[in-house]
What we know:
- Belongs to the UPF0065 (bug) family.
- It comes from Rhizobium rhizoryzae.
- Keywords: Receptor, Signal.
- Residues 1-19 form the signal peptide.
- This is Tripartite-type tricarboxylate transporter receptor subunit TctC.
- By secondary structure, the chain is of the alpha/beta class.
- The protein has 2 domains: 32-127 and 251-322, Bordetella uptake gene, domain 1 (D-Maltodextrin-Binding Protein, domain 2); 129-243, D-Maltodextrin-Binding Protein, domain 2.
- It contains 11 helices and 11 strands.
- A 6-stranded mixed beta sheet has the order 2-1-3-10-4-11, with helices on both faces. A 5-stranded mixed beta sheet has the order 7-6-8-5-9, sandwiched between helices.
Amino acid sequence: MFKISRRMFIAGAAGAALAAPTLATAADWPQRPVTVIVPQAAGNSPDVLCRIITDKLSRALGQQFIVENRPGAANVVGMQAAARATNDGYTFVFATSAALVTNPYTIKNLSYDPLKDFVPVAMVARSHHILLVNPDVKANSLAELIALEKADPGSLSIAVDGPRNISGLIAQAINKQAGTKMALVPYNTISNAVQDSISGRTPVTIQSASVVEAFIKDGSLRPIAVAGKERIATLPNVPAIAETLKNMELQGWFMIMAPAGTPDAIVETMSKAVAKAIAEPDVLERAPTLGFEMEKGENVAPAGAKKFLAAQHAYTGQVLKDLGIEPN
């Protein structure tokens, strides 16, 4: 029988160790370019925000952070690619709230699990959606809009980007809580939705702040509420929907995620670099023009982001259940 000597064993083990790929540690990471997948088309607001952040990361960490757009199938294409990526600290994903907490309840047999296939790195921003009306609508607040609709049920229609997208979900939640019957009119293109609201054809709409900023300024559309629990800096006199309707927290947001199993030390290093990047004055100044408010506080750290994600996952699931929305 062939016997392996101690010397041969040690030599073989040493050779295997040299041949094996080395996992990066926080001390030497990154040693090569890092990919950040964006499950959105190039040029839209989330893509622009991600590129602003990755530019900061490239400068701070000494390696290029490359944005890779993987749009399609309601974020599924990009999220699936990120879930299947090697968890070595060289692939991240700039995930939307839709990808993380809406898709699990609206898409049957979803090809990724946002809670199991990823680890949160940092929550980076919230997106602002605004409830607006045509100037001829005799309502200056959400409460007045509700009263107006109830006086003539079904008389108002609201332009949204689809019944399962953020504006459509907000509209349905308003109808559910307020007992109104505003008819949802889904649009394939945002520009058509906005133009129909300006013309009065669809007199109410919910749109991203960046899309309607100019129309608010010139008086073509009147803002009466903002999505979420808090007012926003760019429209301080416009109440949050939650000021009128309780527990209305539906809002868009963005989180940087890593494939599950990515070394904790790398996740922490990345999170700290992101936190520094999104707190820089030029980023804070640019974000509102894109319709975003940069996140701050505990949600920017991995533990806080994980807690926030779990809470939003449960909350969104309950909202969709209450609305009777099931996966298809």
